[in-house]
């Protein structure tokens, strides 16, 4: 085999680094997919190197794998991910932004189960808002 066959493609490298990080975090692929707001099948296709990776998918995976934003772009460009340190706390607004983005991904998802999850979350949030108005 030539040198080219021995070299990892950018997508193979991404899959390997994702697997290493998932193992470090002691998570299953199902947990990663769920937190990223994508289906397990979508995650499997992504790891196999097929299809495009949308920016919302990248952000979801970075959140699930506790990588800083744009880590996936860095990996695909030949660099390395920037992990969020273990035990690092995020401020309340950053956490809310991350949760909002996860919710948006679930509402926009192509999977019926994820879409349903997003709508249930919307109803829950609206009911909390109604409760606060009633008691306020």
Structural write-up:
This protein has 136 residues and is an all-alpha fold. Helices cover 68% and strands 0% of the residues. Helix 5 (55-64) packs across helix 7. The protein has one domain: lambda repressor-like DNA-binding domains (434 Repressor (Amino-terminal Domain)), CATH 1.10.260. It has eight helices and no strands.
Helix-strand blueprint:
Elements: H1 3-6, H2 10-24, H3 29-36, H4 40-48, H5 55-64, H6 71-76, H7 92-108, H8 112-135
Q: How much β-strand is present in the residues?
A: under 5%
The top-level CATH class is Mainly Alpha
Output the number of helix runs.
8
Q: Would you give the CATH topology?
A: 434 Repressor (Amino-terminal Domain)
CATH superfamily: lambda repressor-like DNA-binding domains
Roughly what is the average pLDDT, rounded to an integer? Answer: 81
State the total count of DSSP E strands. Answer: 0
Secondary-structure arrangement, i.e. CATH architecture: Orthogonal Bundle
The domain count comes to 1
Spatial separation of the terminal alpha carbons: 72 Å
- Structural class of the helix and strand makeup? mainly alpha
């Amino acid at each position: 085999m030539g040198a080219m066959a021995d070299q990892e493609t950018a997508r193979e490298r991404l899959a390997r680094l994702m697997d290493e990080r998932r193992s470090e975090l002691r998570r299953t692929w199902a947990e990663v997919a769920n937190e990223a707001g994508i289906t397990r099948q979508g995650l499997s296709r992504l790891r196999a190197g097929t299809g495009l990776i949308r920016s919302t998918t990248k952000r979801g995976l970075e959140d699930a794998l506790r990588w800083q934003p744009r880590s996936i772009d860095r990996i695909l460009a030949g660099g390395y991910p920037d992990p969020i340190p273990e035990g690092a706390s995020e401020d309340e607004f950053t956490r809310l932004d991350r949760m909002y983005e996860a919710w948006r991904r679930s509402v926009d998802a192509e999977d019926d189960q994820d879409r349903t999850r997003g709508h249930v979350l919307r109803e829950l949030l609206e009911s909390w808002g109604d409760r606060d108005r009633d008691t306020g």
